[in-house]
Amino acid sequence: MTTTYNPFDPHYLDERDLRQELERVFDICHGCRLCFNLCPSFPTLFNAIDSHNGAVEKLSHTEQNQVIEECYQCKLCYIKCPYIPPHEWGLDFPRMMVRATAVFSAKKEGGFAKVMTDQFLGRTDLLGKVSSASAPLVNKISGKQGSFTRKMMEKTVGIHSERILPSYAKQRFSVWFKKRSALALESPISQIALFPTCFVEYMEPKIGKDAVAVLEHNNIACSLPDNTKCCGAPWLHNGNINEFVKKAQNNVKQLASEVRTGKKILVAQPTCSYVIRKDYPLYVQTKDAELVASNTFDLAEFLIEENKKAEDKNFLKTDFKGVVPQNIIYHLSCHSRAQNIGYRGRDLLKITGAKVTLVERCAGIDGTWGYRKENYNLAKKVIKPLKSAINTSDAETCCGDCHLANTAIYEETNRLPEHPISVLARAYGIEAT
To answer: Any idea what DSSP says for residue 96?
Structure first.
């Protein structure tokens, strides 16, 4: 990383240095404009500069800050931007936004309310453990949009009262995994370690269960790493670099042990796989972090790539005796696109013989950004094209890899997307547990 984006550099939290970098980058972006339609930040930026007749240096701190606040870390800049490292201009818009958020966080800008929201959204493991232990009650209290309880939550922890929140499972995925009766696989063709993520661990263990069932059905042995935590994305996106690094260091230690036994790390949620692959090496800066990153894969990516390598050996079985949808609309999340792994979720669905329609539009959530009360109305605008694509589709099944995006889709369309691995499990005739 350059000095500008290296969180361990003494100038990283220097606001004066940051403002100089913002001016440099904004000038380059204004002259390029390839990202004009990616997210709200860029129209806001270009309109502000145009209002000053192209004089970037005349942007006020308030105008700069609005660009920062509207960035929701979709990472799609990396797909469009021609100036990302190793280009000599070294432009890394998402990491600059993280740096700006870190500077503001260190100064405690936003006051007590923002601190409370950051803490609530960042402590996913603590919240998950408490909420899973009393899931029915928690789900009842937090599940009703606009209720008195939700309005109190909005005032205290900054989560918009109308936003649908993912519900919690009574039994955590890791508890189920330890109690389950594993299949006795003879000479497994591969061995993997499943990184559950906080979504699968606390909210949607069904995805993890279906993943294990599909993998074992295909003679792939599964293990669950010990003592892993949330990937830390909420802390990173909130600008709390110290807390993020603590999470990352813990996970790197656990996952590196799995890799050294010859296993690949599979992740069922795109934000989490992105963080492990792209952010851990930059913020942990150890050989183990590089080792983990290079051996971590999106779940669908791993299955499709291994299937390609196998050619006529049929790595993936095609004994589909269960329910196979005829038509599926598949949402490709921003964080899947940013990893440049192709349309692997779609490709996995197509193995069943289903017709799959792809939609590449943002769900307006992107980590925790869309949950904050100050971003809610803007997030509703961002998701409109995705909402329209799904509402006008005649596909019988809706799919998506990202649990947060799926919840937002459900809020807008009343259609709850399934994870591709769950569709594959039902196609094999594997019953949901």
So the answer is: H
User: Residue 421 CA to chain centroid, in angstroms?
Assistant: 17
Burial class (CB in 10 A: 0-12, 13-18, 19+), 406: buried
Mean pLDDT by 10 residues, the chain (433 residues): 80 94 95 91 96 96 96 91 90 94 88 86 94 94 93 94 94 95 84 95 97 96 94 94 96 98 96 96 97 97 90 80 96 94 95 96 89 94 96 96 94 96 97 85
- Which position has the token pair 């934000």? 271
Question: Residue 222: how many CA atoms within 13 Å on its side-chain side?
Answer: 26
State how far the Cα of 231 lies from the Cα of 50, in Å rounded to an integer.
Answer: 39
- CB 333, CB 402: distance < 8 Å: yes
- Tokens standing for residue 331: 């949402």
| 8 A C-beta contact, residue 249 and residue 278 | no
Angle between helices 15-32 and 61-69 (to 10 degrees): 70
Tokens of 157: 């922890």
